[in-house]
Amino acid sequence: xxxxxxxxxxLVIGADGAQSWLRQHADIPLTFWDYRHHALVATIRTEExxxxxxxxxxxxxxxLAFLPFSDPHLSSIVWSVAPEEAERLKQLEPExxxxxxxxxx
Length: 105
Prior knowledge:
By secondary structure, the protein is α+β, with helices and mostly antiparallel strands.
């Protein structure tokens, strides 16, 4: 510390953001993983209310999450898939995208 004192701990959590002061000053290295996935993010309206419940589906080729908004029929989706699949899904017409989304869920 600035006054010369030293703190010790068995565990330090640096949750102060991407440009972490703590990480930089404690010389904690960054580790990165390439998951080889892209995320598609969208807001969707559903026929049935989501009942304020988040849902997540794990497929062999990706992850699909439904995150509820305060409106009972609106959710944000985060669909994690391989880059090529993300590009294919982005090119679909809305009706076809909705069918693919329903099949994935």
